[in-house]
């Protein structure tokens, strides 16, 4: 009976690590404009997008279905370019007691390819619930969309 799990993916990005991380750390509201699978997001509670006590409402598509949830920032580690987001409410609570996303952007200055590392940590409400594998496809697609936009903006 395994209720806890962790999924990890590492994706090479063309955008410099600092610029990619900055989008999440200080321009999170722009994600809805850059990712095909993010339909809408808005502030649900609070005044600032990047305060840890602010709650955002997200509408997004995973496995061809529209989902909603709330999100709050749990931790920001600027030095290590790492952020943890807590997801709850909406469709998340139907399947999970705990659901966290961690993004760490790793600077691989030696070869020019930086890495966006996503970790999904979860606790299912029952063993009958499948692992959230669709999230890995979703995060990969969003990462590619953001990277394409940021690297194109860099080339201009």
Automatic annotation (TrEMBL):
Pfam families per UniProt: Bet_v_1 (PF00407)
Gene3D superfamilies: 3.30.530.20
Alphabetized SMART domains for the sequence: Bet_v_1
A single GO BP: defense response
Record domain Bet v I/Major latex protein: where: 2-153
InterPro entries the record matches: Bet_v_I/MLP, MLP-like, START-like_dom_sf
Source domain of life: Eukaryota
CDD domains according to UniProt: Bet_v1-like
PANTHER family assigned: POLYKETIDE CYCLASE/DEHYDRASE AND LIPID TRANSPORT SUPERFAMILY PROTEIN (PTHR31338), POLYKETIDE CYCLASE_DEHYDRASE AND LIPID TRANSPORT SUPERFAMILY PROTEIN (PTHR31338:SF16)
Family label: Belongs to the MLP family.
Protein name: Bet v I/Major latex protein domain-containing protein
Species, as recorded: Pisum sativum
């Amino acid at each position: 009976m395994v209720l806890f799990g962790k999924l990890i993916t590492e994706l090479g990005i063309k955008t410099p690590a600092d610029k990619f991380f900055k989008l999440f750390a200080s321009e999170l509201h722009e994600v809805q404009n850059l990712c095909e699978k993010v339909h809408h997001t808005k502030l649900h509670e609070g005044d600032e997008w990047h305060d840890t006590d602010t709650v955002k409402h997200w509408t997004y598509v995973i496995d061809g279905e529209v989902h909603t949830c709330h999100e709050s920032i749990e931790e920001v580690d600027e030095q290590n370019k790492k952020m943890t987001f807590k997801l709850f409410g909406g469709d998340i609570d139907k399947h999970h007691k705990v659901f966290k996303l961690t993004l760490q952007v790793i600077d691989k200055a030696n070869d020019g390819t930086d890495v966006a590392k996503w970790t999904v940590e979860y606790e299912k409400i029952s063993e009958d619930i499948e692992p959230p594998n669709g999230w890995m496809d979703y995060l990969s697609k969003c990462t590619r969309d953001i990277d394409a936009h940021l690297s194109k903006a860099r080339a201009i």
